[in-house]
Amino acid sequence: MRNAPLALLLFVLGVYLLTMSGHTYSPDEETMLEVSRTLVTEGTWAISPSHALVEVTGADGRRYSQYGPGQPFAAVPWAALGLAVGQAFPKDQAGFPLRLILGSYNALIAAGICGLLAALGTALGYKRWASLFLGGTLAFATFLWPHSRTFFSEPLTALCLLAAFYLMRRARLHAWKGARGRDDLLMLGAGAFAALALATKIQYAVVLPAFVLYLLWPARKMGWGAARQRVRPALMWGAGFALGMLPLLLYNLSVFGSPFLTGYGTDLKGTFGTPLGEGLYGLLLSPGKGLVWYALPVLLALWGLRRFAVQHLAEAAFILLLGASTIGLFALYNFWHGDGSWGPRYLIPALPFLLLPALPVLQGNAKQGEATTEQNPPPATFRPSRLLISVIVALGVGVNLLGVLVNFDTYINSGYNDEERHFDLAASPIVGHFKLLTERLRPWELNIIQPTDTLVFKDGFSYSEGDKTKHELLPRWTTGEAVVQLWPDLAHGPAQVTLRLTDHRPPELPRAVPTILVNNNPAPVEPQPVPDVPISADYTFPVDTRPAIIVLRSSTWNPAKQGVNERDEDLGLKLESVTVMEGGQPHSYTMRDSPPAPPYYPQPRWYYNPATPRPADLWPVYMAETGMGRKAMLALGLPVALTALVCLTLGLRGLREE
């Protein structure tokens, strides 16, 4: 394979397919998926009313997606295949193959962005190795990787904008000299791709001035007469843009009654209310959403910006204007953080452009023996700058791997409020995902290391209702059969364990009669009422082994079914506290969740399963929890795995040839 960018695309796609999640993450994605489904099954843009979707009323009174038509229309082949495969599954499970197949959509789109960025690097005159390295850096060291696993529309927007710029760059060297034919087609295509980006997400119309600047840049030093003779490329770009916008205008006219009316309406009062300083800090530097943390290689771009601007002034001006307009718009947006995602989601369309100035840095640190120029002398055997580049890229990979392995929704619903998650370093998702991941690895750790003075909530518990900011694990409900693992210090003889249990079920239901087992043996306990709390009692029993497995069994009840509240979950007793006495004195214990209980969702959704925390947010793990059976899992998973391996093999072979 001689096409290096294509080889990179295939390699990245192979990795992305292996690390898909197999599900969606938000109502935004489910809304666009529903549009794709109705296009396939009913041939209409209208969707069924649902409180779980983001919908608006169209001119005909029916309900439509608030979002642009580009994403659901582009995903129609994936939806059609997913629906066809889903027919082989029971009705209540048909959604799983649909979403698994849909997961390959943004995997392909994001891999395409990486390959196209590498192609753009070579088109700008940089060495192939440096361009490929930049494409791989975008793929795995930025938040594009976690977003390749979603169905958000920002990756498609990014691909369209990058394709538009790439075609303009290819045509620019010749088009301003009056070339015809192929260059005209390139400029037509560039304009059409820019329009398709707006059909996907209209907010990015804010970047159009950057494209106009790049179109007119060669004429900036010409007189009016000379410039007028060289307007053909701009006219061809404009024609392509007009043709690309036509389907969007017809869609708006058909659905909303006006070519210039979108699902966002005309009343934007209150939409842009974030103070500019706060939004800029949030998007660029905040620990919860800052670009610099979730895309560390932008530091390399800042490092190389001056050299890039000297070599490519027009492209540098384009990047600065595009970046400033995108960041400025979303810094003012009320929902600037784009939550339900990893990092500053709304900056994905600008991300490939923001990384381009890193190319002089990468080329200046090329491999020993690579072809060099007079301006790029052969590098020394060791350069501190190479080590710095390696550290930045490695840290970028590590940060975004956390976004791949842990579901965004798990941490977003962990108890921290938005202000804390976005601006408090201790509550940053990077820190939170690392903690969740390490907690999920603790079952293996506990099997190897025998800890002392440790109590672990193993199974059968709902989420903690203690102070989340202090990571309190009590109080919490059991779900019928709860398991606690205890490592007591037996130097002073058996430990005495006291469980304080509360029975909150309505008076009309019979009281729970708990059974407590210690290492599979019934513990002889008599409940001791808690003064002034008639629904609570203390249960005390001895523990003389290390570790000790304590099982708490009780009948369950469902608050939603009893009309108490909306909590549709089978609950046993509420564990208020655990007290351990050693040598007649209360002893302090370290409490752990292993694995951590997930937060509660009132209504289970495709994109989050409240019943169990997945050890890793990957499609094989997700499929294993659906209960579809081994044969169904094999039938679905084998084609995905084989496709990924083929892509990896072809990609690696092509990259080695380079």
Write up this protein.
The structure is a single chain. With about 650 residues, the protein is α+β, with helices and mostly antiparallel strands. About 50% of the residues lie in helices and about 10% in strands. The N and C termini lie close together (about 10 Å).
Write a compact overview of the structure shown.
The protein is α+β, with helices and mostly antiparallel strands. Helices cover 48% and strands 12% of the residues.
Q: What's the β-strand tally?
A: 13
Residues in helices, as a percent range: 40-55%
Rounded mean pLDDT score: 87
* Overall 3D form: elongated
What amount of the residues lies in strands? 5-15%
Task: Give the terminus-to-terminus CA distance.
Answer: 9 Å
- The stretches of 5 or more residues where confidence is low (pLDDT under 50) are 175-179, 368-375, 599-604
Helix count, DSSP H or I runs of 4 or more residues? 24
Query: Which oligomeric state applies?
Result: single chain
Q: What class would the helix/strand composition place it in?
A: alpha+beta
- Using only C-alpha atoms, the radius of gyration works out to 29 Å
- Largest beta-sheet details: 11 strands, mixed
